[in-house]
Specification:
Chain lengths: ~1050, ~325
């Protein structure tokens, strides 16, 4: 797959032949792709072509496919300096290449870095957008989220462009005349804009600055990133203002007229003689200088210190503060001592520290006059302020100083944030008799008022307010009193409210929460409350609960914690979403939880479990295996109870009723008649769409009936990252937590999805966090006891079509075989087994159909289940190997999967040529954006290959010999594998596949025979044995 | 009669003090009639050009003849010795350097010049020397006087022109000041060392310009994983008085008398255009950030959630926009 890049090409001076001056700057769009390339040796006089880049035509076509083509694009070429890998070209000795001519390849984004990275110039073709068109183009890019076609730096660009929109909206620009051209200049002196510049500069993906137009063989050396970002921003802003500005103001003198024209569309050239141009240059420079200074790595800073005990005057110290890190400062004394020498401040070097500090102080005294008194000395380091002056500084001047680009550091208690406002300090604990398991329960608590980190009571506040001074000294700290403080405090004291557990949970869930409108600055829970809060907010691992009596199996330690967590939320009557990674045993934990209820005598009414049809079989199997005491029934198929009476009767003595989402919706009225003790939804992403009927039916069913009803959701997808899906899930689990859907959309979904708003996301996560437990199999600190290779049996059923075809095939064939002579019997048995295995895969395979259509998945339960699991694999960015013994199946499945996920799925089988084979393997292993799925035939792909990039192995159909399967598994599970490998073995329940699986597992004599002698024994089977082997069980 | 320049129309209060001082100087001239004529000359655009060339002002003024008259204008230049005194005085107060660096002409700058017994501003009009190619015997003639008027406006374009006329450009002056500051600080440091007897050669460590981080960590060449600045999620307009234009105030450009209030017209036009473009930017920001089809996919299946989920997702994506060719496959 290709990846789209965007690199800035600076303007170049005109060559001797160019007639219209220099070539303007612009954004070069180019792309690299994965292909087999031989290492390149640059010739002495030409920059080598980037062997992995797309040419102009292909790029253009691709941009059109992506809907990102701009009519303003112009063809362009550039030399990019890129990190490259030295690699001996073919036929040359790779050893001791010192002194030998360099050869190698450019690295691609995401490619693993070699030990030694070198920089080489490479030539690429692409399409150039001039600044205005570039801005327009960037505006359509996503602002958040990874996109498989777009390189990371495109998101950087889209953030830069969004900043330019913000500057435009706020009018933070001035027109200028500079070097004979009219320009629009951004003003970056405001504190938040300076921080943005710093952020974007420090995170700049260097590829943005890797390009130039020249063809020299020398590499481009990156300069100051801060200046670069300022320049790029200026280009975008200038481009947009220039394109939009109408230079049609009448009545201007020639000077202004020429300037106006130069600010409009065009190349900005001023039609003025040198003298006038210079005049305009000086005047506009002076004009701008009064508002904003230059972009520098540091700025002047004023630090306010409270008076020593018993004294009146406040001290204000001068220093330089690094833009990159406000905590890095250089005291004025150091700056003066440096004289004309450069000074190091963290990672940057200040060339003229003294001038920088003085200029900042000059600006400071424009907005805060008292400073002028402090600058009477030749080398001032600090000055003193009267209390009144200090107050002005704290209250108003600090903000204005920051706006003109001067840093201000105030004492912590006065720093202006929320903490400096009137708020509460709370101490609370569970009452001694409580176990802390009901939300409405009152806590024993006490509170104090708090301002600027100092506690005070109402009487203190009254006394301090009486001083009529805005800055007061209390308990050793200076705090700021605001006009309404006393009134608000009195109001709260008069209220004297109670304090409940759910309020404690809320306050500790998010920062900045308030209680009766007062912010809670401090919250000190007692040890028992603390324990409940920590568990609730998942600040510590949940307390484990051992496997309950009657549970036939062992829980791993993390599963015991999962069980403990389910039980914990259950006691609060809170819905829980267990979102553990695939393969960690969500089914087992849920079954253990039900058994736990049963063992405690708490399971009195039936529990409804809703799952996709494709996993119902699996549930039945697992329940029978792990919790034999649980009475399980399926509500499925044409013979299911059709009315309330029948259903109630069928539920007699039943603990767990399994049904599918489809039936839940179809039989919703019927199912709502039952007073379920709980509702569990598996593969909970099925209800992600809030307005879909099955999602609504599920949510309705989660509402409590006459008695309480617990809600549990199981999913393997990272639900907390799928904002759009969270609402429906939470509405099922704990309605009200996220408000109604419209509110949710405005408050969370739009800001997060469209703009990647982190503060909304944090808030959202804080709210839903307590109800979601997700552990990853890669997290070795939590899942320390899981083996490196985990085998999972994926039990699947048969679709009606499969079932019918299967039964018919068995009946027809058995008759034929019974009547056949012995010599042909063997072959016929083999043919039967093959056909049945094919049916288990898909009817289309058995019927030798050629193409796949939209209804393909619906015809096979196995394909449906496979899709569900692959969905999670792809979502997680993992890679998978899929093995099958049928080449025809590989072709069908390849077509289907490619259609389903719109990505290439290579298929390696017997007819694949040696070269193709190597290319597929290389691509899968090395291409940073290579395919995520790789189909292989068991025979051709089972040996010799190294495919350690995969962390999932699927055995879609079973082979008699486990050693063959294991060998195939070892393509991924071998030296070089850094992840856990999940091995999924599909078993069609009740079919020949299950019989094979059982034989392999039980190491039966029959299986020994099979392994020992291939399939020869099959011919010798008695008819009864054969029937047992192939007949479909229910 | 009081004569004011075009800048004066906005009221004296808004004039930079150095312009006011210059006008005061001119208006102290005794020959009012000649002044009045000069003012008309200036206003009607007869002054074709004013050029600062080193320490002299060269102007061309259209008189009664076809060929414009050439006017030269200059002040007494301060000697190096005088400048030495001035610099020493300027170095005494950090504020003077601070203001000059920030582009502000300190109001009490004359106090520094007083140290040398000289002035920055001419005290009397006689101190302003002029030469005109016109036949008029009077000095200053009306041509030179017309240039005087416009000089006031030119000072507001760049107040440091005055330094230039006295023999130092602003950058020379700042360089000299930096040099002098260093000497002063060195002396202080020596004095300190002498009094303490200790070594105080402290933190003057310098570092070579470090390479960008992408060089030391080549993975950074491509990587960017920061979220959008939360404050840029919603793009908001400027608060009253917060736009750059409002902060910068009037244009410090001398006006051509033939185009009255051109500066204000132009600023008003800029402001109107700025408001229009700000609104366009906000509309653009509202529409930006479409998530490349993901959003539509999430909505797309809203209608058909009726069948089994696996089938629903399967058909949902199968039916997804087929108008676009499938990417990345050849």
């Amino acid at each position: 797959m290709s990846l789209l890049h965007a690199t800035w090409l600076p303007a170049t001076a005109a060559g001797p032949t160019a007639t219209n001056g220099r070539i303007a700057a612009g954004l070069l769009l180019w792309a690299d792709t994965w292909r087999v390339a031989t290492p390149v040796t640059p010739s002495v006089d030409a920059v080598p072509e980037h062997p992995l880049s797309l040419n102009q035509d292909d790029l253009g076509a691709w941009l059109e496919e992506l809907d990102l083509w701009s009519e303003d694009s112009r063809p362009a070429e550039a030399t990019l300096t890129l990190p490259s890998r030295r690699q001996a070209s073919r036929g040359r000795k790779s050893a001791d290449s010192d002194g030998a001519i360099w050869s190698g390849l450019p690295l691609q984004a995401g490619e693993p870095l070699p030990k030694q990275v070198e920089w080489w110039p490479w030539r690429v073709e692409g399409w150039l957008l001039k600044p205005a068109a570039a801005a327009q183009w960037l505006n359509q890019l996503p602002l958040a989220g990874a996109h498989s076609d777009l390189a990371d730096e495109l998101r950087w660009w889209s953030h830069l462009e969004r900043w330019s929109l913000s500057l435009l909206a706020r009018g933070r620009w001035l027109p200028e005349a500079r070097h004979g051209r009219g320009r629009w200049q951004p003003l970056l002196n405001r504190e938040d804009d300076r921080r943005r510049l710093e952020d974007l500069a420090s995170r700049l993906p260097q590829v943005i600055d890797a390009g130039e137009r020249g063809t020299s063989l020398s590499c481009r050396r990156p300069g100051s990133q801060r200046l670069l970002v300022a320049r790029l921003l200026e280009a975008l802003l200038d481009g947009q203002l220039r394109a939009g500005f109408s230079p049609n103001c009448p009545g201007l003198d020639p000077l202004l007229g020429a300037w106006q024209k130069a600010l409009g569309p065009g190349d900005g050239r001023l039609e003025l003689d040198g003298e006038d141009a210079e005049r305009l240059d000086t005047a506009t420079h002076h004009w701008r200088e009064a508002v904003a200074g230059r972009v520098e790595p540091a700025h002047a800073c004023l630090e306010l210190f409270t008076p020593p005990e018993g004294e009146e005057l406040w001290e204000l110290r001068f220093s330089l503060q690094a833009e990159a890190d406000p905590s890095m400062k250089l005291a004025a004394a150091t700056v003066w001592a440096a004289g004309d020498n450069p000074l190091a401040l963290g990672e940057v070097t200040l060339d003229q520290p003294g001038a920088l500090l003085l200029e900042g102080l000059g600006r400071a005294l424009q907005v805060f006059e008292p400073i002028s008194r402090g600058l009477d000395a030749a080398a001032p380091e600090a000055m003193q302020l009267t209390p009144a002056e200090a107050f002005v500084l704290v209250r108003t001047a600090a903000a204005r100083l920051r706006d003109v680009g001067v840093g201000v550091v105030l004492p912590a208690s006065l720093s202006g944030g929320l903490a400096s406002r009137l708020g509460l300090a709370i101490q609370a604990e569970l009452p001694t008799t409580s176990r802390g398991f009901t939300l409405g329960e009152s806590l024993s608590w006490s509170w104090e008022l708090m301002i600027g980190g100092v506690t005070l009571n109402l009487r203190d506040l009254e006394r301090l307010s009486a001083k009529r001074s805005p800055l007061v000294h209390h308990k050793g700290a200076w705090i700021e009193l605001r006009p309404g403080d006393l009134k608000n405090a009195k109001k709260f004291c008069a209220l004297d409210p109670g304090f409940k557990l759910d309020e404690a949970l809320r306050i500790t869930g998010n920062e900045g929460e308030t209680l009766y409108r007062l912010p809670v600055h401090q919250f000190n829970p007692g040890p028992r409350l603390q324990a409940v809060l920590e568990q609730y907010h998942q600040q510590k691992a949940p307390d484990p609960l051992p496997a309950p009596e009657g549970f036939a199996g062992q829980l791993r330690p993390y599963q015991e914690r999962g069980l403990g967590w389910l039980a914990f939320l259950h006691r609060f009557d809170q819905g829980a979403c267990l979102a553990d990674d695939m393969g960690l045993g969500k089914t087992i934990q849920l079954l253990a939880f039900l058994q736990h209820l049963k063992a405690e005598g708490e399971l009195k009414r039936p529990v409804l479990l809703v799952a996709p049809t494709s996993v119902l079989t699996n549930w039945k199997r697992e329940a029978a295996g792990f919790t034999p005491e649980l009475q399980v029934r399926e509500h499925y198929g044409p013979r299911r109870p059709a009315n309330e009476e029948a259903l109630k009767k069928a539920l007699g003595g039943i603990d767990l009723l399994l049904t599918s989402y489809g039936l839940l919706q179809r039989d919703s009225e019927l199912l709502e008649c039952i007073d379920w003790q709980g509702v569990v939804i598996d593969e909970a992403q099925a209800i992600k769409n809030p307005s879909a009927k099955q999602s609504q039916a599920t949510r309705d069913l989660g509402r409590p009936g006459k008695q309480g009803r617990f809600r549990i959701a199981l999913t393997g997808t990272p639900v907390e990252n799928r904002v759009s899906e969270l609402w429906a899930l939470m509405d099922f689990l704990n309605p009200k937590v996220l408000g109604d859907e419209a509110f949710f959309r405005q408050r969370y979904r739009l800001p997060i999805e469209r703009y990647g708003d982190m503060s909304s996301l944090r808030d959202l996560k804080g709210r839903v966090g307590p109800f979601i437990l997700r552990r990853l199999k890669t997290d070795k600190s939590i899942i320390s006891d899981l083996p490196e290779k985990v085998e999972l049996s994926e039990w699947v059923g048969l679709s009606p079509e499969q079932k019918q075809l299967y039964n018919k095939t068995v009946e027809d064939s058995l008759d034929t075989i019974a009547r056949s002579p012995l010599g042909q019997k063997h072959g016929q048995v083999l043919a039967l087994l093959t056909k049945l295995k094919q049916i288990c895969n898909h009817p289309a395979l058995a019927l030798k159909e050629q193409g796949v259509d939209a209804g393909f998945a619906a015809r096979s339960a196995k394909v449906q289940r496979l899709e569900e699991i692959l969905e999670e694999v792809i979502e997680a960015g993992d890679r998978a190997l899929l093995f099958t013994q049928f080449a025809e199946w590989g072709h069908l499945l390849k077509a289907h999967l490619e259609r389903r996920w719109r990505q290439e799925v290579p298929f390696l089988y017997g007819n694949t040529s040696k070269n193709e084979r190597q290319a597929m393997v290389d691509r899968f292993q090395d291409d940073p954006r290579g395919p995520q799925l790789f189909l292989l035939s068991l025979k051709a792909g089972g040996v010799g290959l190294n495919l350690t990039r995969a962390s999932h192995v699927f055995h879609i159909d079973r082979w008699w010999n486990p050693a063959v399967e294991n060998q195939a598994t070892d393509r991924a599970y071998r030296i070089g594998q850094t992840n856990r490998v999940l091995v999924h073995k599909f078993i069609t329940s009740g079919s020949v596949e299950e019989r094979i699986d059982r034989m392999i597992r039980e190491k039966s004599r029959m299986a020994e025979d099979i392994i020992g002698s291939g399939e020869d024994w099959l011919g010798g089977l008695e008819m009864a044995q054969l029937r047992d082997l192939v007949a479909l069980e229910d | 009669m009081t004569i004011t320049t075009s800048l004066g129309d906005q009221g004296l209060g808004q004039q930079p003090w150095w312009v006011a001082q210059w006008m005061e100087l001119i208006n102290s001239y005794r020959y009012k009639k000649r002044l009045e004529r000069a003012w008309t000359y200036a206003r009607e655009g007869n002054v074709l050009s004013i050029r600062f060339e080193g320490r002299r002002v060269h102007a061309r003024v259209q008189g009664s003849e076809i060929e414009p008259y050439k006017v030269k204008l200059w002040l007494d230049v301060l000697s190096d010795e005088d400048w030495g005194y001035v610099l020493e005085a300027l170095g005494q107060k950090a504020r003077w350097s601070a203001q000059l660096l920030a582009g502000i002409m300190p109001e009490d700058i004359e106090r520094a010049f007083a140290a040398s017994g000289r002035r920055l501003f001419p005290f009397k009009l006689q101190e302003v020397r002029s030469e005109c190619s016109c036949p008029d015997k009077a000095n200053p003639c009306k041509h030179a006087s017309a240039v005087y008027y416009l000089m006031g406006d030119r000072f507001s374009e760049d107040p440091f022109v005055l330094f230039q006329l006295r023999g130092r450009t602003r950058s020379q002056l700042l360089a000299d000041l930096a040099m002098q500051r260093r000497e002063l600080l060195q002396q202080r440091a020596q004095a300190l060392r002498a009094s303490q007897g200790a070594d105080t050669s402290a933190a003057t460590a310098t570092a070579a310009q470090p390479s960008p981080i992408a060089i030391s960590d080549p993975a950074r060449w491509w990587r960017y994983d920061a979220p959008l600045d939360p404050a840029l999620v919603v793009i908001t307009p400027a608060m009253e008085g917060e736009s750059g234009l409002e902060e910068a105030g009037p244009l410090p450009l001398a006006e051509d008398g033939r185009f009255p209030e051109a500066n204000q017209h132009f600023l008003a036009h800029l402001k109107a255009e700025g408001t229009r473009l700000a609104q366009a930017a906000m509309a653009m920001a509202m529409a930006a950030g479409r998530s490349m089809g993901e959003d539509s996919a999430a909505h797309g299946s809203a209608a058909n959630g009726t069948t089994e989920p696996a089938a629903a997702t399967g058909s949902g994506s199968g039916a997804a926009p087929a108008s676009k060719a499938q990417p990345g496959r050849r």
